[in-house]
């Protein structure tokens, strides 16, 4: 069974985490290092994907700056997304040559991770929605956003799982450009603040089950 390194970056600025991810991508894409799943919690940031529209950011940039929120243009798919405290962000850097060079399979495995985790651990029924949009939904509300990039059959960017996320911050944007849908979090669905360290571990474990790989938990080293 393939192994994947799992590295918890803790709380890290978006730009720094992107740099770490890019350095790993260079090595994984050349098969010099093992596939890696980075997990991280970001300070508040808005990221704009390649199809992102600035009009989907609803408050002026100078107000965001006053709030300590940056806007990052990124190379993943999708529109505008919010990242912030209480959210588990995952950046799988994986060579899809090991997984049949199948991007649809890859996205479905990520979605399955959260559908299974929510059902098995919390009794919450989640699904892929109507498949028009990526991500994991509880009813009409998104709990996990997915936005990826694949170059040289190697993945970057990934998912954002709302655990204890401040959902009012999504009022700053039109999440993923969708005006007719909402967002939710595990805290909201359970009426209970969740243990982030436990959820970091469980997310990694269920992710690896979904992909049929063995996790190798590692410390982050500069």
Structure description:
With 222 residues, the chain is α/β, with parallel strands linked by helices. The protein has helices spanning 14-29, 61-66, 103-122, 186-190, 196-211; strands spanning 3-11, 36-41, 45-48, 70-73, 80-83, 87-93, 136-138, 141-151, 154-162, 182-183, 214-218. Helix 3 (103-122) crosses helix 5. The relative contact order is 0.21.
CATH class: Alpha Beta
Provide a count of the helices.
5
Under the CATH scheme, the architecture is 2-Layer Sandwich
Low-confidence stretches: none
What fraction, in percent, of the residue positions are helical? 25-40%
The residue-averaged pLDDT reads 92
Largest sheet: 8 strands, mixed
Portion of residues in beta strands equals 25-35%
Order of helical and strand elements:
EHEEHEEEHEEEEHHE
Gap between N and C termini, in Å? Answer: 28 Å
* Domain unit count: 1
Structural class: alpha/beta
CATH homologous superfamily heading? Bira Bifunctional Protein, Domain 2
Q: In one word, what is the shape?
A: globular
**Which fold does the CATH topology refer to?**
BirA Bifunctional Protein, domain 2
Total beta-strand segments: 11
Rg measurement, Å: 16 Å
Keywords:
alpha/beta, eight-stranded mixed beta sheet, single chain, 222 residues
What's this, in brief?
With 222 residues, the protein is an alpha/beta fold. The chain has helices spanning 14-29, 61-66, 103-122, 186-190, 196-211; strands spanning 3-11, 36-41, 45-48, 70-73, 80-83, 87-93, 136-138, 141-151, 154-162, 182-183, 214-218. The protein is built from 5 helices and 11 strands.
